[in-house]
Design a protein that fits this description.
alpha+beta, single chain, 2 domains
Amino acid sequence: MPRIPTAEKIVRAAAAKAEAVRENIVRKAAARRIWRAFAAVPLAMATAVFPAPQEDAASVPSVHEVALAASAAVKLPGDGSGASDAYAAMSLRAVPAAGAPGAAFTAALAALVPAADIPVPAAVAFTPAAPAAGNAEREAAAPADKNQALQKELRVWIDALAKQEPFRRWSGAEIRLDPLGPGTHGWLATLTDPDVGEPVGYLVVYAEDGPEGGYRLGEYGLGSYPLFAEPVALRTLRENGYLPPSGEYAMTRVYRHPLAAAWKVRVNDSLYWLDAKTGEELPLDERAWERAAQAQAQIPPAEPGETVSGVRLNESFDPYERLPWLMGEAALPADSAEPILKRLRGGLHVRFVSEPFGDPVLYALPIIGYVAWSGGRVDLAFDQNGPRFVPLVLMRELGKFYK
């Protein structure tokens, strides 16, 4: 009579067989991914890719809890100014959990690529099962040959603003750098309070053209919902039922100016556009995005060494309490900053109205304050999930101001 194996032996045998199958799959998957990676070198990646959360997820995860892959730049020819474009052109499938095949892929790729050609670690990944990465890993999203100069200039602007009361929490904040999107030659610097691990703001910077190089400060903002906050976009995807059963989708940052900034989300054959600040779904397609107004105004510099000469933040208000743009009221003059600043100093309301994509999207935003720089630049603040500070010369081109 044959011996009947015990339950324990059956479980062990099944586990051993499953482990063998898993290891075989891992080896084959890693080999395929390494081959694809080398076929694409030189390149860099800036597309955020996420696994769909489990059905029993209780709440929107924090920035550190959402899976995010951000591969470091492979060394590019020249000064690396094209790195941000190369970053944003990439997309991947869902990131595996810690210890899954993605880890084997990263290790194998790092072992095969000569160290001299990679200025920073090959990949940085955040998964729900992994601890939050340190500051050095977060800053690895920028090419090494640009990182030091960019960090230095960012610190000058951050320190100048941190002396003002609304920006106090920027002092000593950690910086995470991400490429802004294709065609921008720009970077998004997200600031995090190291004591609580919470975002406190962001800055957008552009690489200057020309032989002297350098960087130019674009928009910046305050609060725990910075530009391109992954949890905000994830909440919209979940609430609208867009998260696929397969758990695979890709999110790419696209940015032309502060009012044409979006997550481009691809799920199977569907494409969704989400506002980069609020996460709201935008009624856009590829053609509508291409029609978006491209701002031509040259952003005035905030030169290193400049100080902040004035800051004001008023209470927010509902811009739809009145609809002057529909009632035939004349727009406020904005050729110079003074008429608008005078209203703000007097606590009076100022509304900003823009249609960056034409009829599909209208933004009506409350102007709640400003930052004035010693060199003459003025940045107006509007409330959109926290204050966003945008150069007046740029806003003047993108829309109109009303009482």
